[in-house]
């Protein structure tokens, strides 16, 4: 594991890029309306990035093990799609769709990563709305776990503890029974915490060490030190934690087709805590 500590110059650029990215993701999310294609949302994202003089980090990026480079600017993932959905002109947003916009940005060689989930139109179940709200809260709980002396495991612990819930359960819909493979399954809130995909170091590259799990033990893992920059990104589902990759080589879906939501911020570790960089 090699954790890159960013220089003050890099941090200044990451702060600028993070601001751009927050505005871009919000603007694209505001265009999520019934009848629009995900391809058209992607083109809009590309235009906004170009307008800033920045470049998309995901376009033509080839992760280890991927069959071919990622073909688009944004990852747009709908309903049971968890992450890495590929925009497509034939994929038209329908009323009630849960739509995640996830974009990586390269601003003068410094990378930030940010995602939000919104619901299209007016028809959506209370369970879907609550899933989206709670995934955003889970992200904030993970971020708020960062203070002087905390570790990567503290972030996962905070997210997991929130998702599992304590005290009176806030169950939405039915809690699906454990599938018996061990570890976190369904929290008292009724959600699955997606396995195998998680946050990461970011800044000089789009993916750096360390891996930031969405579950974990308090005090475990690498220590968070000032100058580290990490992307925290809980992905929750209304069912299983299990996923599979579709034949396009990228789109990750829940194996039980349950709905999924995803929020992500790029966060700087500071002397006393944290600073969210992907913020307007
Ligand atoms: Mg990310």
Automatic annotation (TrEMBL):
Family membership, please give it: Belongs to the peptidase M24A family. Methionine aminopeptidase type 1 subfamily.
Required cofactors, per record? Co(2+); Zn(2+); Mn(2+); Fe(2+)
Q: Upper lineage ranks? A: Bacteria, Candidatus Nomuraibacteriota
UniProt organism field:
Candidatus Nomurabacteria bacterium RIFCSPLOWO2_01_FULL_36_10b
What's its catalytic activity?
Release of N-terminal amino acids, preferentially methionine, from peptides and arylamides
Q: Which domain of life is it from?
A: Bacteria
Recorded hits in Pfam families, A to Z, give: Peptidase_M24
Subunit organization: Monomer.
Identify the residues that bind a divalent metal cation 1.
102, 113, 264
UniProt-annotated binding residues for substrate: 84, 207
The cofactor note reads:
Binds 2 divalent metal cations per subunit. Has a high-affinity and a low affinity metal-binding site. The true nature of the physiological cofactor is under debate. The enzyme is active with cobalt, zinc, manganese or divalent iron ions. Most likely, methionine aminopeptidases function as mononuclear Fe(2+)-metalloproteases under physiological conditions, and the catalytically relevant metal-binding site has been assigned to the histidine-containing high-affinity site.
Q: What is the protein name given in its UniProt record?
A: Methionine aminopeptidase
Q: What processes in GO biological process is this protein linked to?
A: proteolysis
What GO CC terms are in its UniProt record?
Answer: cytosol
Q: Where does a divalent metal cation 2 bind?
A: 113, 200, 233, 264
* InterPro entries assigned: Creatinase/aminopeptidase-like (IPR036005), Pept_M24 (IPR000994), Pept_M24_MAP (IPR001714), Pept_M24A_MAP1 (IPR002467)
Q: Which residues form the Peptidase M24 domain?
A: 13-271
Report the EC number(s), separated by commas if there are several. 3.4.11.18
């Amino acid at each position: 594991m090699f954790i890159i500590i960013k220089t003050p110059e890099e941090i200044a650029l990451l702060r600028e890029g993070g601001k751009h990215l927050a505005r871009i993701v919000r603007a694209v999310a505001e265009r999520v309306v019934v009848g629009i294609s995900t391809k058209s949302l992607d083109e809009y994202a590309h235009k906004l990035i170009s307008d800033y003089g920045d470049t998309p980090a995901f376009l033509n990026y080839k992760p280890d093990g991927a069959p071919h480079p990622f073909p688009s600017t944004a990852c747009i993932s709908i309903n049971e799609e968890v992450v890495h959905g590929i925009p497509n002109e034939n994929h038209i947003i329908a009323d009630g769709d849960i739509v995640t916009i996830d974009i990586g940005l390269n601003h003068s060689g410094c990378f930030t990563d940010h995602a939000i989930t919104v619901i299209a139109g007016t028809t959506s179940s209370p369970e879907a709305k609550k899933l989206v709200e709670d995934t955003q809260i889970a992200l904030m709980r993970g971020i708020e776990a960062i203070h002087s002396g905390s570790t990567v495991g503290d972030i996962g612990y905070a997210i997991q503890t929130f998702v599992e819930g304590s005290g009176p359960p806030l169950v939405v819909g039915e809690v699906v029974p454990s599938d018996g493979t061990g570890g976190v399954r369904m929290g008292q809130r009724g959600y699955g915490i997606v396995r195998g995909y998680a946050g990461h170091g970011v800044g000089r590259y789009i993916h750096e060490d360390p891996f930031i799990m969405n579950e974990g033990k308090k005090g475990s893992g690498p220590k968070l030190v000032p100058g580290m920059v990490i992307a925290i990104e809980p992905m929750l589902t209304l069912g299983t934690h299990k996923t599979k990759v579709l034949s396009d080589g990228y789109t990750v879906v829940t194996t039980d087709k349950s709905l999924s939501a995803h929020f992500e911020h790029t966060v700087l570790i500071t002397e006393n805590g944290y600073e969210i960089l992907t913020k307007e």
